Amino acid sequence: MTDVTPDKNVGGGEPPPTTSPPDNGWRQEYWRKNLRLMVILLAIWFVVSFVFGILLIQPLNNIEILGFPLGFWFAQQGSIYTFVILILVYAKMMDRMDDQFGVSERPAEGGEK
Amino acid sequence: MTQIQGWTLGFIILTFALYLGIAWRSRVKETTGFYVAGQGIPTVANGAAVAADWMSAASFISMAGLIAFLGSDGSIYLMGWTGGYVLLALLIAPYLRKWGKFTVPEFVGDRYSETVRTIAAVAAIIISFTYVVGQMRGGGIVFSRFLGLDITGGVIVAALIIFAYAVLGGMKGITWTQVSQYTVLIIAYLIPAIAVAQQMTGLPIPQVTFGQILGELNALSTQMGLSQFTEAFSARPQIDVFLVTMSLMIGTAGLPHVIIRFYTTKTVRGARYSAFWALFFIALLYTTAPAVGAFTKLNLLQDVNGVAADSLPRWIENWAATGLVTVNENAQTIQTVSNSATSGADLIVNNDILVLASPEIAGLPAPIVGLVAAGGMAAAMSTAAGLLLVISSSFSHDLYFRRVKRDSTDKQRLLAGRIAMGLAVLISVYAGINPPAFVAQVVAFAFGLAAASFFPIIVLGIFWKRCNATGAAAGMVSGMAFTAAYMIYTLEVFGTSANPHIFDISPEAIGTIGAIVNFIVTIVVSKMTAPPPEEISEMVESIRYPAARRAVPAGSTGDSA
How many CB pairs under 8 A join A and B? Predict the structure, then answer.
């Protein structure tokens, strides 16, 4: 793991503090937020593909837009667009969270080989 | 040589020269470079390489044709093969990148135990190998069809070229070669699709405009004895559509040759964006595919509807030579069309020719036909090369180095990997020339097995610290055994007879149930046995955070990692 972020471990001259509770506090917070974001995005993933594109495809097909029955459109077009956006949103939100918690790798990115 | 053959040969030679040139320029001598390109690949390029790796002959050559005849139910492939990337991006890729190891068996070996690593390495080799066979066959078909070689010659030529640059270049060569292959294949796919959309609807955006022709297509399909294009569950029952889609998604997220790609990014953040770019590039083709299917089917039906059997369009004659298009000899005029050889329809068209033939069916010029053939080759070869790399790394890293010779040098391991690759090519050439009768089922095997073996134990390994080696080994073995048993039960393989599907669940769908079995067994057995050692919990904890913590503006203690 150190080979990914070789410059991090030389940063602090002070010995590591022995109190772990505050340390675990931010860790749990970060992980909890990560999981919440993940669950929300996966819920959307499930709804557009399995609910709109499969379970409710027949009722949705009664609605027609630009010649596409709506359920059919979700199954063959809409779900794929949503998947792409979901991953982009995840990457962007995680960037923000990493910055917020000080675990971002970005400053190091240009410096590494 | 016809004009079409000339253009095809020209494009294929030109693109091959490009791939080989790139592979030669970026050939490597060290083990790390061979497998993971020294982790110096930009995320956009890495995304394009994942896309090329992922989109095989099946995506490029077969999928639109399948959709043309499956209609609405073709969405199992569209959603199944794209939705898996959401799982990969959110549940797997960033964490495995942080772990920082070469292969999936390596992660599993560190997280669980050496036994689990060996099981995983063998599974990775089996899964990857079944894929390579399909690619060799796909490449061989393109060569033989357009260049007038027989199928044996076509497969051998394709194999030689794939082997040459996979061995020379390793991962770095493959990454940049695959970027160029992605470029070739997406251009080859989009140009005819855009041209056909322009021709039929006046707007060059196939994804948007194919809605306009759906009504007409439905009416004509019904008239010619086919089910309506937009009618759901005409080809498969609803429960099966659900389970196949899920199986393809989690199979995708568990495929070793896709996962290994995320080690080639520099950072955890890079892994997230690589997943985004990969799916973006894949979506370009996958959103076009249903349009190609619909346009080509309408063109085809209009071309032949009510036409006398002796005055059919030229493309039918061209493709009849391959045996993949047949006109019923008793037919005076064409009244019915089917993709099934046993349907007795007046005109029978094999799914696999639709993409390759679509420019001809639409009457587009010969250079475009040649370009599509070159694109089909790019798809087959890029995937095959990535798969060979997984076979070679699993063998040299996880079996040879760990099990046979622990003190082997870098050079010996590289050699072992290349020998494994060579052997895999030889066996797959043989299998490509003499395909087992069940090539299509073998693909289902590979997905189902990946879904039932890797996905559950990787996800649990990241998200559940309590998960231990005994649980993972039991889960993986039972998931795989269950899945394989049902496949053998329902398919005609190894001389067994095919039994009817239970609860309408097809063998392609059983991977979903296998994954559930794996999850349950892993959790129950882990709970019943001792928790993993403390250092494993710490390792799992550490992969959840991209970097060690720095001082943050909020003024917290900013302490050590």
Answer: 192
- Residue numbers of the domain that contains B158: 3-103+113-239+265-300+363-438
Nearest to B547 among A68, A104, A113 (CB): A104
Distance from C-alpha of B364 to C-alpha of B396, rounded to nearest angstrom? 48
* B18, part of any domain: yes
Give buried/exposed letters for B261-294 (b at 16+ CB in 10 A, else e).
bbbbbbbbbbbbbbbbbbbbbbbbbbbbbbbbbb
CB contact under 8 A, A57 and B72: yes
**Does B544 contact A17 at a Cβ distance shorter than 8 Å?**
no
Instruction: Give the chain A residue whose CA is nearest to the CA of B92.
Output: A38
Q: Can you say how many angstroms the Cα of residue B554 is from the centroid of all Cα atoms in its chain?
A: 46
Please state the φ and ψ torsions of residue B150, each to the nearest 5 degrees: -80, 170
Measure A36 CA to nearest chain B CA, in Å. 12
Name residues whose C-beta falls within 8 Å of residue B71's C-beta, 6 or more positions apart in sequence: B221, B227, B228, B229, B230, B231, B234, B235
Task: Indicate the helix (H) or strand (E) that contains B338.
Answer: strand B337-338
Of A30, A67, A109, the CB nearest to B266: A109
pTM for this prediction: 0.84
Out of A12, A71, A105, the one facing B560 most closely (by C-beta) is A12
Please answer whether residues B211 and A67 qualify as being in contact, where contact means their C-beta atoms are separated by less than 8 angstroms: yes
Using CB atoms within 10 A of its CB, is residue B23 exposed (0-12), middle (13-18) or buried (19+)? buried
CA distance B552 to chain A (A): 5
H or E element in which residue A101 lies? helix A79-101
The total domain count for chain B is 1
Give the CA angle between residues B534, B119, B412 to the nearest 5°.
Answer: 95
Q: State ipTM.
A: 0.85
Each of the 561 residues of chain B gets a pLDDT tens digit; together they read 577 778 888 888 888 788 777 766 765 555 555 555 545 667 888 888 888 888 887 788 778 888 888 888 888 889 988 999 999 999 988 888 888 776 788 888 888 888 888 888 888 888 888 778 777 777 777 777 666 667 678 788 878 877 776 666 555 556 777 788 888 889 988 988 998 888 888 888 888 888 788 888 888 888 877 888 888 787 788 888 899 899 989 998 888 878 877 777 778 888 889 899 999 999 999 999 999 988 888 888 888 887 887 778 878 877 776 667 778 877 777 788 887 777 777 888 877 778 878 888 888 888 888 888 888 877 877 788 778 877 887 787 777 777 777 776 777 777 887 888 888 888 888 877 766 544 555 666 778 888 998 899 999 998 998 888 889 999 998 998 898 888 878 776 656 667 777 777 887 888 899 999 999 999 999 999 988 888 888 888 888 888 777 655 444 443 433
- Cβ atoms of B41 and B49 within 8 Å: the answer is yes
CB contact under 8 A, A109 and B269: yes
Q: How far is B95 from chain A (nearest CA, A)?
A: 11
Q: B474 lies in a domain?
A: no
Closest chain A residue by Cα to residue B539: A1
Taking an 8 Å cut-off on Cβ atoms, the answer to whether A84 and B266 are in contact is: no
| Residue B553 located in a structural domain | no
DSSP for B343-362 reads S--SEEE-GGGHHHHHHHHT
Report yes or no on B348 lying in a domain: no
CB contact under 8 A, A102 and B549: yes
Shortest distance between the Cα of A13 and any Cα of chain B, in A, equals: 10
Domain containing residue B214: CATH number: 1.20.1730.10
